[in-house]
Design a protein that fits this description.
By secondary structure, the chain is an alpha/beta fold. It contains 21 helices and 15 strands. The strands form six sheets. Strands 10-9-12-13 form a four-stranded parallel β-sheet, sandwiched between helices. It is globular, with a radius of gyration of 25 Å.
């Protein structure tokens, strides 16, 4: 029940929990229509104008949790989706005159407008939304800062201008431009943008007894508390019904070894190169800077590397990536990346599955470490560079003169790629991270910010200091193709 709750994350998590609970019981199709009434019993509305709109929002979130578009008439198969019923509450007019307006004699706002959209009423200026072209000149001209810029937060946060509005003011996401970074999901104050889920598909595989392995992203350490180690998570994930669990930090070690060779060769040739670990960054190159594809590393992502290794060890196994990243869901659907994971879940979806199975993480114990600390630090900004440099040094390659530009967030990634395209990039290599701070701040996280960092630091401190190639020697009998085809 969501009685009294208006928190976006709480609403999302409760829907995921209810869907997971019914899916594990095999009752989802039979009882899903009851979920909106269980969560919104009424008669008072919690977060919108009425319980009927709230229930419709819950219905659309249920469809997303089942892997479908929010409504039957939406054909966009993008991972990031708009919940129409929730988007209707967002302001449509971008520039609005506030009480600060002094209706001054200079009328600089009116003079600045080239579209005659501004008139003077009795108490203040008025902007006609039908004439306004949202150029912003009036706001810049006002000496009292009386004109507020109410650009939609989702549109403002999108680094690739993939968001527009239809004739009814509802957000439209351009699938051809969207890189699935999830910035709009994090920044929408109405929770009107979310992602499709593979959770029900994975639960059905578990119920059917499939050989299915979870692959947890390096960012998972600290997500469920300072005391919840990788070993504890491995036992808890098996309790859900997975056959076993692998750390994607192990795949990150494989990537470091492969990418270090590419970097060394490119440096000798004088060729500039970008990393290829972050799928949103890769999407940005593919969709917005296609001429730079030859500059992108051909090494597969840590997720793909881990999936290939798991299949080499367990032929025929099904692999499920679990991390904080929305774009990973798009990566598993990318037919170009052969041998990738079969499914991708987020940490909040894993948390819903823990709750649905009534799993108490404090009841488990144990230690587990498959990846090096360098692989584990792929989760933070600068971690990929540090790991690749470490792999090069372990091979005796001189890295003193190598210059790497670390891009912390999608805006920095875009700027660096523009410089590379123009031939003005001073660095030798670009590390691209679409999320500010790295994967640890991904949109599918349970925890972000200072608390997550503190929890993670305690977990990382317990890991041994094995080197990258030392770690990989344990898996030499399982050959893995590390390059995209």
């Amino acid at each position: 029940m969501l009685q009294g709750s208006s928190d976006i994350n709480t609403i999302k998590h409760e829907v995921l929990f209810e869907v997971a609970k019914l899916a594990f019981r095999g009752e989802l199709n039979e009882k899903e229509d009851q979920i909106p009434y269980d969560l919104i019993p009424g008669p008072q509305a919690n977060f919108r104008c009425c319980i009927y709109k709230e229930r419709e929002i819950i219905r659309q979130r249920i469809r997303l949790a089942k892997g479908m578009s929010p409504s039957a008439n939406q054909n966009n198969r993008n991972i990031v989706q708009v919940i129409n019923s929730a988007c209707e509450g967002c302001p449509i007019t971008r520039f609005v005159v506030t009480d600060n307006c002094q209706k001054c004699m200079g009328k600089k706002c009116q003079q600045a407008c080239n579209f005659h959209a501004i008139s003077m009423l009795r108490d203040r200026a008025y902007i006609d939304p039908s004439k306004c072209k949202e150029c912003g000149k009036c706001s810049q001209a006002c000496p009292y800062n009386a004109i507020a810029d109410l650009m939609r937060p989702c549109k403002r946060s999108c680094p690739v201008d993939a968001i527009s509005m239809d004739e009814n003011g509802i957000v439209v996401i351009d699938e051809e431009r969207c890189i699935n970074c999830g910035s709009c999901i994090k920044d929408c104050p109405f929770g009107a943008i979310s992602d499709r889920s593979f959770m029900v598909d994975v639960i059905n595989l578990i119920r059917n007894g499939a050989e299915i392995y979870a692959m947890v992203a390096p960012a998972i350490e600290g997500q469920f508390g300072p005391q919840v180690s990788i070993g504890i998570l491995a036992d808890a994930i098996k309790e859900i019904g997975f056959t076993g669990m692998y750390e994607v930090s192990l795949g990150a070690d494989l990537v470091s070894a492969s990418e270090s060779q590419e970097w060394a060769e490119a440096y000798q040739e004088g060729k500039k190169m970008t990393t290829s670990c972050c799928p949103a960054f890769v999407n940005m190159i593919k969709k917005h800077f296609p001429t730079l594809l030859s500059n992108m590393s051909t090494t597969v992502s840590p997720m793909a590397a881990t999936a290939k290794l798991v299949r080499a060890i367990h032929p025929g196994a099904i692999t499920v990536f679990i991390g904080p990243c929305i774009a990973k869901k798009g990566e598993v659907l990318d037919s170009i990346t052969q041998g990738n994971a079969d499914y991708a879940l987020t940490f909040d979806e894993l948390n819903a599955m823990f709750r649905a199975r009534e799993i108490n993480l404090s009841s488990f114990g144990g230690h587990m470490q498959q990846g090096s600390v360098y692989g584990k630090n792929f989760a933070i900004a600068g971690g990929v560079t540090a790991s690749v440099i470490q792999a090069m040094e372990e091979k005796g390659i001189d890295t003193e003169k190598i210059n790497v530009l670390g891009c912390n967030g999608a805006a920095e990634c875009k700027k660096a790629l523009m410089m590379l395209k123009a031939g003005r990039l001073p660095a030798d290599f670009i590390e691209g991270m679409a999320c500010v701070g790295g994967c640890v701040n991904g949109p599918g996280s349970v925890l972000t910010g200072r608390q997550a960092q503190q929890n993670r630091a305690k977990q990382i401190a317990t890991a041994d200091k094995r080197e990258i190639y030392e770690n990989l020697r344990s898996y030499e009998e399982y050959p893995v193709e590390m390059h995209r085809k």
